[in-house]
Structure formats: structure tokens, C-alpha cells
Amino acid sequence: MISLEPKENVDESFVTIVERILNGTLRLYPFEEVYVVLIDNWFDHKWLEFESSRIDSDVLGWRAKLRLPPFEPCRVMNQSCFRKHTSDVCRYETSSSSPLHISSTNRSLAEICSSGAFVWYSFVGNSSDRGSVMVYLNREGKGAAWYASFVRSPNWHINKVKGVSKRELTEMLAAPVAANGI
Asked: Cys-Cys crosslink for 116: which of 33, 35, 39, 40, Cβ 3.0 to 4.6 Å?
């Protein structure tokens, strides 16, 4: 299981949602590398596959050239990288990495790693009423992506999804955390 370091003035209940999405994804696909990026503000679904071709997908929807979303480096508040532990398939360790978002770059996920999960989430302060999460997956040179937005009134609930169904996302959020962490 991956736990995200708490940031000052961040809504902990939204971070818990992000952790459940991240760990639910890793239960389905135990990727070698995981990147988690905190973006300075809410972002909408238009960032999903922003500079990627939407016509190069296979039967399952995996794309040959899924590119990183072009967030400006100044919007990145934090980036964390985790690598799968060599002796325990369900365990990840913090690792150093180069910044994903560098000025004027148009890199594909495959240029960064051959097996990875990439999660972007919006900074949600204690008084914020909306948040967003975007997940990109990369394996064997192909990528898949989805987006979800959340609103708080008074508790957090799913607002809009793209690339994933509300049912799938609800199941991921409701899944219990296993004793081994994932």
C-alpha cells in the first residue's frame, strides 16, 4: 500500500480518496513504478489525453502513444515516485525521480518507464468543494487513462467520470484495504 505524505492545509478526506484510487489501481495492475503528482488547483477532464492521439487504441482501449498531460511545471506542488519492492510484489518504496513536468516537453509514458501508474490530483484545501483525479497507466508500451471529479456537499462524492464508469470507481473506493496493505 502507498500512503501519501500529508501536506499542510490539504483536506485529509480527499487525500484518502486519492490513496484508495491509487491502491485500488495497484491491486488490479502491480506496476513497477508509480508517480503521484499534486497539482496546485482543480483541473477538468479536458486534460485527459490532452496531446495524445485518440485513434491509436487497441480493442481494450490501450493507446500506443499516450503522452503526459502538459501541466506547467509551476503548477506542480509535489511529485512522489515509488518503485515496487524487489522481494514483495505488494510493497512499494519511495524512490527518487526526475520531474515529469518540464517546460516544452511532449513525452510519452513509454519514454519514462515500461510499467507504470501515474496519478495526478488537485490540491484541495479544507474549504474547497471540488477535487479531481486523473490516472494514466502504462504497460508494455501502451497506455490507458481516466479522469474523475469529486464534489463536497457536505461529504465527498463522485461528480463526473471519463474513461471509467462510476460503478467501477465506486467499487474501487469501497474496496477494503487488505492486511498485506493492498
From this structure: 33
Cβ atoms within 10 Å of 16's Cβ, excluding its own: 14
Q: What is the DSSP string of 158-169?
A: EEEEESS-HHHH
53/170 Cα distance (integer angstroms): 28
In this prediction the pTM is 0.89
**Alpha carbons 129 and 124: distance in angstroms, whole number:** 8
Render 59-108 in DSSP notation, one character per residue.
TTS-BS-PBPP---GGGEEEEEEEEE-SS-TT-EEEE----S--TT---B
Length of the chain: 182
